[in-house]
Design goal:
127 residues, mainly beta, four-stranded antiparallel beta sheet, 50% strand, globular
């Protein structure tokens, strides 16, 4: 049974940093792609970042490129999202997700590609 538990959200001022964690159980990162998405109430879920298991490559959404970094710790079976230079528009609920197996092209950015989701953690950035 796959379980994802996010933590690390909170309230931060604009320009600050946060690191989100997603502890995974019931899977390993050796054959699973890990992703982060975010959602503001009333809007669609937005792709933030992902890491492919096949070549360890990373992909980022346009609005976070250069500010956010996705990484994993295999020993802890945890995926992280380091968020720097936060902006008020980064305020959202952040979700981690798992996409099993190979995924090519832009598929890794698609919400529908993912098989499992965490419960989310709230990030609020004040101006």
């Amino acid at each position: 049974q796959v379980q994802l538990v996010e933590s690390g959200g909170g309230l931060v001022q604009a320009g600050g940093s946060l690191r989100l964690s997603c502890a995974a159980s019931g899977l390993t990162f050796s054959s699973n792609n890990m992703g982060w998405f975010r959602q503001v109430p009333g809007k669609e879920r937005e792709f933030v970042a992902a890491r492919r298991w096949s070549d360890s490559s990373t992909v980022y959404g346009d609005s976070v490129t250069g500010r956010f970094t996705i990484s994993i710790d295999n020993a802890k079976n945890t995926v992280y999202l380091q968020m720097n230079n936060l902006k008020p528009e980064d305020t959202a609920i952040y979700y981690c997700a798992v996409r099993r197996g190979l995924v090519g092209g832009q598929g890794i950015r698609a919400e529908s590609s993912y098989n499992y989701w965490g419960q989310g953690t709230q990030v609020t950035v004040s101006s």
